[in-house]
Amino acid sequence: MKPFFLPAIVCAVIGFAAAAHAAPAHAAPVSPVALELAATETAVGDQLFIAAREAFRTGNRARLESLRNELALTEHVLTPYADYYLLRQRLAKSDESGIKAFLAREKNSYLAERLITDWLKELARGNRRTEAERLFARLQSPDQEATCIDLQLRLRRQKANEAVLFLEAQKPWLAIVDVPEGCQALFFHLGEYLPDDQYWQRARIMTERAKQKAARQTLNALPKKEQPDAKQFAELWEKPLVWLNRQKPEAVTTRTQKEIVALAISRLANNNLDLAVTQLERWQKNIGAEAAAWCWGQIALVGARRHRPEALNWFGKSSQATLSPDAREWRVRAALRRQNWAQVRLAIENMPEEHRNDPTWIYWLARADKAEGRFNDAYDKFRQVRGESHFYSNLADEELGRSIQIPALAPPVTSAEYAAASANPGLQRSLALFRLDFRLEAVREWNWAIRDMDDRQLLAAATLALENHIYDRAINTANRTQYQHDYTLRFLAPFDAQVRAAARAQDVDDAWVFGLMRQESRFIIQAKSSAGASGLMQLMPATARWVAKKIGLKDYNHAHVNDLETNLLLGTSYMRMVLSDLSDHPVLASAAYNAGPSRAQRWRAEAPLDATIYIETIPFDETRDYVKKVMSNTVYYAMLFSGQPASLNARLGKIPARERAESDLP
Hints:
2 strands
């Protein structure tokens, strides 16, 4: 069987600019002359590093070597990156000189981990199995490709344990969409042992995720006589109803024929549920009970996302099929939407153990216990998830009669702790990368540096990030503490005067504004999403222009969207508009801010609905997670601002019944 996946390279670049923020000093003052000299040396080193990075990108080895030597003379903190770039270029030409010395010098660093990973992949390409296995053992946090390489090596060597290893290898087989180069050998090797069922299972999963290329490539690995015709596959994907109507059920007899009919029905369900039901009723006797059950699961999944009342019944017809994790979750949500607590319980209890132990499903199983009168069981489960700072933990606390608590403030970071954080090489490199606007690498370097820190070290690192105006790292680092906490770092409120003024002007809750901004941008002024949203409040261009016109903002140009005052004006104005348009309900308005007012309106029920059920049944994963976090954030900001207890349940309340009028908001 031949390899059938191409490597995929994904790059993401997010802009960053530091914001002004007054912070206490932790070090002795330095003379102005010394500061100016240090700034000049840093600026020279920065330019040398930028040039070295470009030389690496363009493959100019001679220039890279020259720039690396100049950079070393400045003792610039990013000199190890130039060393890494040189070694990467050598590796590409099978030159391993200098690698061992670098790894000894940079032991346990992020760059060492990257270089070991790069070296491992080169060894695997060269079929140097023994060396590759030894090298994998040195990785502290293997990426997906490295893990695939290790599995491939072990499968080839440990024949006695192949059954166990095969089960381990199935996880990437079923999960990965765009298969990276390092996983191709594993997938090729699996092809020697996989039964056809595994190919069709992967093809089904890729079809459920609407990944045509991955589904097609998977089926291309079947024996030639079992592969569906390429033209037929393309047609059933793009025009499933046309393709299905041309087929004769009595002529469908082979495994391949039955499976591609099932894939076509799955595709049709995304376009027209009712037609998919009609087609499945026509075909189910011919494609077999298991394939028909999978199709019912696909129809149910789409129906549940669209809040169709029939979805629960459709799920009931899928019991003979293995449902995807996504479909299992939506079976619970379909039952929640109908407030059928017996079916909520059944759907959660039928999840695999590791899945149902997620706090989300523990909470909803507790709600089912409570609704059915099993109060002791319910409170036992609520206690399992209480005491944390996430949405369902907040709700569980309140179910137990406890107010949401802000933990006692940890003792202040000492000068010695702050000095240790400032001297940490990984954090130093990260700060330099942030300064140069290489945000993706800066975040990776930072996250690597803090991965094994204790609470005191984390608080010191968060303080260092705060004082360098890197608010997202301050928040994320403070979020990691286990026993000693500082919620003023977890829930930072930078630009306080400007945000509060903008909130007052629009008569919106400043805690809600901060809660939304924390989730939208982590207070990065120049943040830009992959969809094109910009600034602290992550405004889409069309929305920003529409709001500017509505409020009479003259001479608005989208180039100004990242201006602090402009972004806050437009963002809080839009918050007021969606709030007014959606029954003054912050849950609906938060959903609208992320996914659009018409969707937030459409997701409402015909009768008033518990807001927790509304949120859990939001069809978009991103929006569902977003609304949970915005509302939980809001409660913590309210408590920090007022010093008084706050209730998440009180803020959530009930979602009023759907209104008939369509919104004119973008």
